[in-house]
Amino acid sequence: MKKLTFIIVALGVILAFLSCATSDKKLPEPEGQLLTQIELEELYQNACIIRLNIKSIMKSGSIT
Asked: What is the pTM of this model?
């Protein structure tokens, strides 16, 4: 009886470790395409600049 219990517990532990293991094939693919640094710089080289001036509270600034 003790031997059977030991085997069942050992199989449970082995199955628990196998279920936690993941491989690269099982991981989901990222959505979209990753951009390189050069592509990001080209995309944002013409970033818009917003300048605001709020006279009622005497505040001004710019947002890029």
From this structure: 0.34
39 near 53, Cβ under 8 Å?
Answer: no
Rounded to whole angstroms, the Cα distance separating 35 from 42 reads 11
* Lookup result for tokens 């890029």: 64
Backbone phi, then psi, for 58, in 5-degree steps? 55, 45
Tell me, letter by letter, the H, E, C secondary structure of 22-42: CCCCCCCCCCCCCCCHHHHHH
Q: pLDDT tens digits, residue range 18-46?
A: 776 655 566 666 778 888 999 888 887 77
